[in-house]
UniProtKB/TrEMBL annotation:
The protein's role, per its UniProt record: Forms part of the ribosomal stalk, playing a central role in the interaction of the ribosome with GTP-bound translation factors.
Lineage per the UniProt record: Bacteria, Pseudomonadati, Planctomycetota, Planctomycetia, Planctomycetales
GO cellular component terms attached to this protein's record: ribonucleoprotein complex; ribosome
Alphabetical keyword list: Ribonucleoprotein, Ribosomal protein, RNA-binding, rRNA-binding
Pfam families found in the cross-reference section: Ribosomal_L10
PANTHER family: 39S RIBOSOMAL PROTEIN L10, MITOCHONDRIAL
NCBIfam families: PRK00099.1-1
One GO BP annotation of this record: translation
The UniProt record lists the keyword Cell membrane: no
Ribonucleoprotein listed as a keyword: yes
Oligomeric and partner information: Part of the ribosomal stalk of the 50S ribosomal subunit. The N-terminus interacts with L11 and the large rRNA to form the base of the stalk. The C-terminus forms an elongated spine to which L12 dimers bind in a sequential fashion forming a multimeric L10(L12)X complex.
Gene Ontology MF, one: large ribosomal subunit rRNA binding
Name of the protein in question: Large ribosomal subunit protein uL10
Amino acid sequence: MSKFVKEMIISEIESQIGEVRDFVVVDSAKLDAITDNGFRIKLQEKGITALTVKNSLARRAFANAGIEGLEDVLKGPSTLVWGGEDIVELSKEMTRWAKDIEELDIKGGLTEGTSLSSDDVTKLSKSPGRLELIADIVGRILGPGAQLAGAIKGPGGTLAGQIKSKSEGEEA
């Protein structure tokens, strides 16, 4: 492959990854064409991109983009996977696919500049996702207000009745 062609491929990899900094790397080389095609189509439907790369060119593209931490993972057949809501959703999706397709192996990943092993990606997939964490935070914030509203509007308006009788008692 000529230097010009290599530079074009590196440039294309850089443009495809853009500002993305969370990746999972899988080995999909053992998949047959039909399974691989179905796998990629299902990922695309969820907003996840899979790109099979030549490791040396991917390393150079990542170096040009200022991304470090995937050097140890990019050995042997590699497919870069990125996208989805966040890295937790991505790791959940890839872990599910690795269970469904025996030939698909998770090699590792990268999040916020931290390199992840295959086990780390599996552990991350068991964490709550972004939306689950937001729902938990909102629930915790609204909890005290809901309790107060329940006490005010509760049976017989006990809290409101007590406040009213207390204020009438002070006026008399």
